[in-house]
Amino acid sequence: MSPAPQNSTNTNLLGSFASLLGVLGIFLYFTGWIYRWTYFGFFEIEINTLNLSVESFLLVPIQVILGDLGIFIRTILVVIITVVLIKFTLWLIRSSNPNIPPSTSKLSSSKFTQKLHAFWLWAPLRSFAQLFPQPFRHEIVIIAWILVALFWLARWQGNTDAYRDAVNNTSTRPIVTLVSPSDKIALGRNPDDLLTNPPLKNSRIIGDVDQFRQIFGRETNDTTNPLQPIVWRLLIENNSWVYLFPAMPSGAKTNQRPPVLAINTGDGRVQLLILSRPKIR
């Protein structure tokens, strides 16, 4: 009769391990999604339009948490702050018990902490928390703060990596050269005559004309500095769409964004979209 309890214990351990893996998978996917949402949002691309595999989101958090020594140190600091916030929140939502003297509680060992705990602003939060059982209440607090920490870690790293890739000197995105028939795309240069703009007689445009003119004539060299070539880099190729952008110079500000050319390589009628940051009026 002795193996029965042992089997029950093993089953409980396996169930707990499976639950832990499920929660860990949710955290990893959440982190990967926020990172990529921020990264591609930097280039004004909606992540939901990209056909990215679910498995890839589970690998992205490695860069967010263990990318390099600086990122790892930042992660440790965020973990420490998150633990402190969790403990502080659990203390705030704890109901006061007049039968327990202040000396028995570490956080209630001073008049300041007593006044802080009794502050009127926390009363509605404390009353709302009492609607849930204590174990569930604690789990909500822990999960909420972990998600907040992961959100900001992923967002910080997503913005940092996007700006790094947008600047030519630090970009990890591959340099690309696009070759296309002259009647398929309005932008581009004839390799035998880089000084002549292609004819636009058969082209049509919908949207901001200035946005088009900022790129037209600057596909290969900067018009303000003819000796400075424009380096185009490949952001991503997805679902018959190729996303290209001209890399920014090293002195670019962190709030600058390069325009992105979304080129349809399939047989659809839409051949070219120019994506750029919305104008702030």
Q: Explain this structure to me?
A:
With 281 residues, the protein is of the alpha+beta class. The chain folds into 2 domains: 3-95 and 130-166, no CATH class; 173-281, no CATH class. It has helices spanning 3-42, 54-59, 61-66, 69-92, 111-117, 122-129, 134-166, 209-213, and strands spanning 221-222, 225-229, 232-238, 241-246, 260-264, 272-275. The strands form 2 sheets. It has a 4-stranded antiparallel β-sheet, with no helix packed on it. It has a two-stranded antiparallel sheet with strand order 1-2.
Order of helices and strands: HHHHHHHHEEEEEE
| SS summary, helix count | 8
Provide the spatial order of strands within the biggest beta sheet. 3-4-5-6
Measured between the Cα atoms of the first and last residue, the distance is 78 Å
Backbone structural class: alpha+beta
Shape: elongated
How many separate structural domains? 2
Percent helix: 40-55%
Strand content: 5-15%
Task: Please tell me how large the radius of gyration is.
Answer: 27 Å
How would a crystallographer describe the biggest sheet?
A: 4 strands, antiparallel
| Residue windows where pLDDT falls under 50 for at least 5 positions | 98-105
